[in-house]
Amino acid sequence: MEKSLAQVNNNCLKVVLFGPESTGKSTLAKKLADHYNTQWVPEYARAYLQKKWDDKQEVCAVEDLVPIAYGQMASENQQAALANSILFCDTDLLVTQTYSKIYFNDYCPPIISEHVQKNHYDLYLLMEIDLPWVADDLRDRPNDRSFIFERLEQALIDHHKPYVTVSGLGDARFTTAVTAITNHFAYV
Questions:
Q1: Tell me, what DSSP letter sits at residue 138?
Q2: Measured between alpha carbons, how far is 95 from 24 in angstroms, rounded to an integer?
Q3: Which distant-in-sequence residues (6+ apart) come within 8 Å of 132 by Cβ?
Q4: Per-residue pLDDT tens digits for 52-67
Q5: How far apart are the first and last CA of the chain?
Q6: pLDDT of residue 67
């Protein structure tokens, strides 16, 4: 696995799907990548933490955060090399940092916070919590979605990230995302 949290330089635009659990990020990332005939980056933490749960019935711990960050960036850099003019990322290090602070008493490993500042994304699609919450082995905060949404939105504001809130069910959510991308990038 790549041992760097830095982005590899390339010419593609990077769009992050950003939001609380069970807001359709993965589904929308896949659909957008298909629509734009490009690549998308799955959320590395899901596979990593699902394996941990399946093997040991353990949840995320502080010591998992840096390996998750490394895995996410390795996946992103690999997919960026294959992408056409745009890459869709189903999470980024700012999500990792924000969730870390929520779950671990306002703590985030410094190396992650450092690369939150260094890495660049062109647009964030902040997913509204208007989809029904769906339980799985990893999702654990159905009653905190509003709180987490607010924390994530504040993180975008605090870090001066360009973002658009995406809402709606089914095709309406997809259409809102495509419209936001079209409005933000005149040449996509």
A1: S
A2: 15
A3: 22
A4: 888 998 888 999 999 9
A5: 32
A6: 95
47 or 141, greater pLDDT: 47
Task: Tell whether pTM > 0.70.
Answer: yes
- Please state, in angstroms and rounded to a whole number, the distance separating the CA atoms of residues 174 and 166: 8
Alpha helix stretches (DSSP H) within 84-127: 93-103, 110-118
Q: Could you tell me the maximum CA-CA distance found in the chain, to the nearest angstrom?
A: 48
Q: Which residues pair with 39 in a beta bridge?
A: 87
Per the listing, tokens 């010591």 go with 63
Q: Supply the pLDDT for residue 50.
A: 82
CA dist 67 and 133 (Å) reads 27
In this model, does residue 116 exceed pLDDT 60?
yes
Q: Tokens at residue 41, please?
A: 């980056």
Question: Helix, strand, coil % (nearest 5) of the chain?
Answer: 50, 10, 35
β-bridge partners, 86: 13
